[in-house]
Amino acid sequence: MATTYNQETNNSWKVNLDVFSGPLDLLLHLINELEIDIYDIPITEITTQYLAYLEQSNMLALDVGGEYLVMAATLMAIKSQLLVPRNESLADEEEMWYEGEDPREHLMELLLEYRKFKLVAQDLQEREEARSAFITKEESDVTKYQEHIPLKADEISLEDLRTAFTRLLNERALQDPPPTIIERKQVSVSDKMTEIATKLREADSPMTFSYLIEGVLRTELVASFLAILELIKTQTIKANQSDVYGEITLRYIQKKVKKEEVQ
C-alpha cells in the first residue's frame, strides 16, 4: 500500500497513516520498502524507521493512534531483549527473555499471517472488480417454448429418472465400503451408451434401472446416467414405470428397417 504525504505551509512533509489499516500494515510496508527479509528482521533498523513514521505523522500522542504506540512499545521491548548481554550473572527469569526463542519470532509470525490474509483480500478485491465489468442477464422463463406432450400411463419424465438416480446414489453411499485409492479409469458417455444398448438388446426381457447399473463403479455412475438419457432421447431404448415411485424398467427398441434400406 503506497504512503501518501501532505505538504504543510511551512514546507515540511508529513506521513499520512490513514492509508494503513493498522501497525502491522505499516510494518509490512516498511519491510517491503527497505527490502528486509521478513524471516530475519533487523529490529534496530525497523524500530528506528517505525518511530520516524509515527513522529512525522504526529502519532506520538497518547490520545491518537493507540495501537500504533502499542506496536512501538513492542518493537522497543524486543530491541532491548536483543541488546541484553548474555552472561552467567543474569537471573533465570531474565535469561528466559532471549534464550531458547528468538524474541522476534512472534512478531514474524504475526506479519506472515497478516501478509497471507492481505494477499487473499487483494485477490478477492481484484476478482470483484473484474466481475463488476460483467452484466448478468436475468433468468428467462422458457417454459412457454417447451412443447407439452402428455405422458402415457406407464411412461416416465426426466424428473422421474432424476429421482431414481438420486435414490440409487443415496443407497450406494450407505452400502459402499471405505474409500480406497485405485487407478482412475476414464469412461466416456459414448462408451457407456454402447455398453448399455448392447446389454438391453441382448436381454430376453426389459431390465430395471437399478439392475442395469448394479456393480457400476461410483466414478462411472454419472456417465451411465447420461448415457441412458441420451439413448432415450435418440429412441434407442424406452423407459417405463408401472406406478408412481415404482421401479423403472428399460428396454431396447428394435428399429424398423425402411423398404428403401432393404433394396
UniProtKB/TrEMBL annotation:
It holds the Pfam family SMC_ScpA. GO terms for cellular component: cytoplasm. InterPro entries: ScpA, ScpA-like_C. Its main location: cytoplasm. One of its GO terms (biological process) is cell division. The keyword Repressor does not apply. It is found in: Cytoplasm. Coiled coil: none annotated. The keyword Cytoplasm applies. PANTHER family: SEGREGATION AND CONDENSATION PROTEIN A (PTHR33969). Participates in chromosomal partition during cell division. May act via the formation of a condensin-like complex containing Smc and ScpB that pull DNA away from mid-cell into both cell halves. This is Segregation and condensation protein A. It comes from Dolosigranulum pigrum ATCC 51524.
